[in-house]
Design brief:
This protein is an alpha+beta fold. The protein has a six-stranded antiparallel β-barrel. α2 packs antiparallel against α5 and α3 packs antiparallel against α4.
Amino acid sequence: MENSVKGLSKATLRKNRTNLIIGLITFLVVVILISVIGWVIMKPESETIQGEVDANEVRISGKIPARILKLKVEEGNYVNEGDTLVFLSSPELYAKLAQAEAAENAAMAQDQKAIKGARNEQIEGTYELWQKAKVGLDFAEKTYKRAENLFKNDVIPAQKFDEAEAQYKAASATEKAARSQYQMAKNGAQKEDKLSAKALVARAHGAVSEVEAYMSEIKLTAPISGEISEIYPKQGELVGQGAPIMSIVDLNNCWITFNVREDQLKDFTIGQGIKVSVPAIGNNKFNFKITYIKALGSYATWKATKTTGQFDVKTFEVRAKPTLKIEGLRPGMSVLLEETKI
């Protein structure tokens, strides 16, 4: 009986020990499973850096206030450099051109007058006056000499001699003045007058050239080849000086832009190759090269949430250009960074 009881006790102890071991193993398995599941669930996901495609854009504007006379293109059209884009209308400009041309003609007439000098009739008239003065001087000189001889012989009084002398001197001065007038008419305008006339002509030419330069602005052409991305005014509307009329996007000069936090910037250097995918082009992957890195303003700074252990993190703009031309790449498309340091 005692042997039976002892055997039963040993079997029970053995069974209890087995159950305890199984329970411990089961508990450990459950703990491990929960840990694995928790690690998988709580594992931080790798951050995806997303960027955007950008391109060189040129705005077309005029130098003069005018009205849109005719638009030669529409949004989405591809234009080549030199193609006519829009015609402007400015009646005021034509009026200014007429004024400038009239001023130019007047200045040229003054210049010709200064070069040519006095008219032939004026020269002949001053010459005749000079000859008349010479005759008067000759007569006054003879009269003076006769009076001088008579005065020396006490034939005439001193009063008569003084009168003859005064007439002689007056005739001499008149002859000199007439000769100067003739020489002035013969020589034409002074050097200073000629230079002044030439300066007026040059200024008038400059005014005409300025207006003609503005006249070329009534027809605006494409400075680059590209696609018309946007047209701002409508046909018939007024536009101010320098106001944008349309924009051209150069699709051959595209790049991508990423905003990268300062703590991630260690993975980016200028000249480094990166690989990105473009969802709009079938998620295909393309190689790019980083060409530009610059810190953004304070508005793009990540502020620390704790006073200790953390710091403000700035955001940097990173640009990269494709190593090969990518067909279908357009501004505004999203890009996803796949790999760095390739």
